[in-house]
Specification:
- The protein has 118 residues and is of the alpha+beta class.
- Among the domains are: 13-53; 78-114, no CATH class.
- It has helices at 13-23, 30-36, 41-49, 78-83, 104-114; strands at 85-90, 94-99.
- A hairpin with a 3-residue loop joins strand 1 and strand 2.
- The termini are far apart.
- The relative contact order is 0.09.
Length: 118
């Protein structure tokens, strides 16, 4: 047929990882990323499936923490005491207010009893 032989492009693994990373970014369009780099979208879709080109996880950061004993200078104010209450609504008709130290079995029993109301 006399046509020219097709030359296959060869891309480095680093380039493939970079393009795959761009394509996997939130809100990125694979087709747009492929066009920007002069690639066929199907080629980029293939690279995305290949684990060799998956984006490398970033290392977690450590934050220094110092644990100390709590310091209580004074009794809680009335406003702070109100913040320590738990209010539960069972439908529109029943509202139960509990102190923060309510035991779990009691809370579960309340939920069972009031949860049956129409």
């Amino acid at each position: 047929m006399g046509g020219r032989a097709r030359v296959r492009s060869q891309y480095s693994d680093a380039f493939k990882r970079q393009v795959v990373s761009e394509a996997m970014a939130a809100g990125a369009s694979v087709a747009a990323v492929a066009r920007r780099h002069g690639l066929n979208g199907n080629l980029l879709f293939g690279w995305r499936k290949d684990p060799r080109y998956a984006p490398q996880p970033t290392a977690g950061a450590f934050v220094p923490v110092m644990v100390t004993e709590p310091v209580i200078d004074q009794e809680p104010t009335a406003a702070e005491a109100v913040d320590r209450r738990l209010q539960i609504a069972f439908g529109e008709r029943v509202r139960v207010t509990c102190l923060e130290d309510i035991e779990e079995p009691v809370l579960l029993r309340l939920a069972r009893v009031f949860g049956r109301l129409p």
